Amino acid sequence: MRLRVEFTTEPFDLDEAPPHALAARDVIQGADLDAVDVGPFGNTAEGDVDAVLTAVDAMLRRSLGAGATRVSLQVNVIAESDGRAEPGEVAR
User: Fold this and answer.
1) pTM above 0.85?
2) Which residues on neighbouring strands pair with residue 2, listed in sequence order?
3) pLDDT digits (tens, 9 = 90+) for 38-58
4) Taking each helix axis from N to C terminus, what angle separates 49-65 and 19-30, rounded to the nearest 10 degrees?
């Protein structure tokens, strides 16, 4: 199963990236993920289920520890090439 994660951290600072945003960026860029895109107003990444869930756990812990007061997060299952979502168990 493949997942796409989209997230933002708050509070925003338009003049300089706050420590919590830098922490989140470092985790996502250092994870074993595909198609990573980080930006000032949102971040996305794709990968297999284990890689995405591991990265999300680390990103939440590090960004909250670095001062984030809110993390908005969306995770989507990516459809296979035939348009169907791949079935699979996520619980471990």
Assistant:
1) no
2) 48
3) 887 789 999 999 999 999 999
4) 160
